[in-house]
Amino acid sequence: MKRRVEFTERAGRLRDYLPADDRRNLVQLVGEIAADPYGARTHLAYIDDEVTRSVWHESVMVHYVVTLHAVIVVDTDVYDAERGFNVV
Questions:
Q1: Residue-averaged pLDDT of the chain
Q2: Which has the closest alpha carbon to 75: 86, 66, 62?
Q3: Could you read off the pLDDT of 34-65 as tens digits, one per residue?
Q4: CA gyration radius for the chain?
Q5: Could you give the CA distance from residue 72 to residue 6 in angstroms, rounded to a whole number?
Q6: Contacts of 32 (CB under 8 A, 6+ apart)
Q7: How crowded is residue 28: how many other Cβ atoms within 10 Å of its Cβ?
């Protein structure tokens, strides 16, 4: 069952301002999450929390919460040192 997807304000703002290629990767990843939020590429974000999950695809990271009918995207980020995104 494909779940409805909702973004928090912060995650939605980042989605709206991402460059087109990164936005495409994010939308593709969120679509995969909506189809199977417990897929093989996903993992628990915290060891003591069963509903908050995380997944990476290329340079895009998504933290999300799974509910009965929806996936709520809590946080998204892009890690790409060559372009200067989130370099530590």
A1: 86
A2: 62
A3: 999 988 888 888 877 778 899 988 788 899 99
A4: 13
A5: 5
A6: 39, 41, 55, 57
A7: 13
Tell me the whole-structure pTM to 2 decimals. 0.83
**Residue 71 carries which side chain, given as an amino acid letter?**
V
DSSP string, 52-66: EEEEEETTEEEEEEE
- What CATH number matches the domain at 4-82, 1.10.760.10, 3.40.50.2300, 1.25.40.10, 3.30.2310.20? 3.30.2310.20
Quote the longest CA-to-CA distance of the chain.
39
Categorize the per-residue pLDDT at 83 as very low, low, confident or very high, splitting at 50, 70 and 90. confident
pLDDT band at 88 (very low <50, low <70, confident <90, very high): very low
Strands (E) in the chain, as ranges, are 4-7, 43-44, 52-57, 60-66, 70-78
* Amino acid in position 65: V
